[in-house]
Amino acid sequence: MVLVGIGDWLSELIGEPNSVTTVLLVALSALLILYLRRDGWLSYHGVRSLRRSDIDGTLLYLPLVLIALMQYTKGLRDDLDLTAVLLIIALMICVGFLEELIFRGMLLRGIQRTSNLTRAIVISGVTFGIGHIVNLARGMAPVDQAIQIGFGIVLGIVLALLFAVTGTIVPLIVFHALLNISGNLTVANPASESLMLAATTVLCVGYAAYLVSVLRRRGPSPDLLEPAPRQPPRSSPRVHPTTVRQA
After folding, report:
1. What is the dihedral of CA 46, 222, 57, 49, to 10 degrees?
2. Which residues make Cβ contacts (< 8 Å) with residue 149, sequence separation at least 6?
3. Helix axes 190-218, 142-166, angle to 10 degrees
4. Alpha-carbon gap, residue 77 to 17, rounded angstroms
5. Distance between CA atoms of 187 and 74, rounded to whole angstroms?
6. Cα separation of 224 and 173, whole Å?
7. In the beta sheet, which residues pair with residue 76?
8. Which of 10, 190, 227, 240 is the 20 to 30 Å CA partner of 36?
9. Nearest by Cα to 212 from 106, 68, 57
10. pLDDT of residue 140
């Protein structure tokens, strides 16, 4: 939140919205990838190569595809130049990666280690929705913010269920980025957005019910049953014996 606030402020100073914010989040994403690749933590948090089995029990992610594409029915904005569009795309890819890594990868897995999967799914979903309160600082109206938080909780639980079913957050990162990109490139229309939000929420509830049935039928992905990587042992400083000279 602090990093985004600083980036937005600097971007406004130089007259190019999202420019500095994008650079900062790209740098943060790269640093996290490099750091978590050590000792297998990146794959433990769900960032790994995709497998054929990752689409089993997901309905081919079609509900997520539909949610992302529905935004374009509002029409595209005509006030964005190519630079602005590219910055939005780059920024939203980073936001999708960071939010999925934090809320699904780190938070869910962290709670799961000390509690159980059900509690981890619920808490990570609720926290994801409430976390969007930071948009108040970016000028969003309180009523719109409350609606976004409610939808964020429902969507967060769906994404957490998908992580539990598949053991990967890579498709979730792609969806999250596409959803944010579509929301920023399309026209803001309060009337149509309310209707779309209601339809999307119903779709998410139905998808969540399906994913819960998949989990009950076959259990979570084997990836979520893997223990956390062990921390490498710290090497103790070697103590050199003092040579005692005989008189």
Report:
1. 40
2. 129, 130, 132, 133
3. 30
4. 16
5. 6
6. 18
7. 186
8. 10
9. 57
10. 65
pLDDT for res 243: 42
Identify the three-state secondary structure at position 76: strand
What region does 155 belong to: left with phi over 0, alpha with psi -120 to 50, or beta? alpha
Helices 170-185, 142-166: crossing angle, 10 deg rounding: 160
CA separation for the pair 178, 23 (Å, rounded)? 19
Query: Whole-prediction pTM value?
Result: 0.89
Query: What is the structure's pLDDT at 181?
Result: 97
> What sign does the CA torsion over 203, 205, 207, 209 have?
negative
> Does the structure show a pLDDT above 70 at 236?
no
3-state secondary structure 9-21: HHHHHHCCCCHHH
- Give Cα 198 to chain centroid, integer Å: 22
Closest CA to 221 of 171, 168, 167, 170: 167
Measured distance between the N- and C-terminal CA atoms of the chain, rounded to whole angstroms: 68
Q: Quick one: which of 53, 135, 153 has its CA closest to 95?
A: 135
* CB 67, CB 204: distance < 8 Å: yes
99-108, 169-178, 187-196: the lowest-pLDDT one: 187-196
Amino acid 137: pLDDT: 57
Domain boundaries, the chain: 51-222
Q: For residue 172, give both structure tokens.
A: 């979730």
Residue 148: the pLDDT is 79
- Each residue of 38-78: pLDDT tens digit? 889 999 999 999 999 999 999 999 999 999 999 999 899 99
Distance between CA atoms of 199 and 186, rounded to whole angstroms?
18
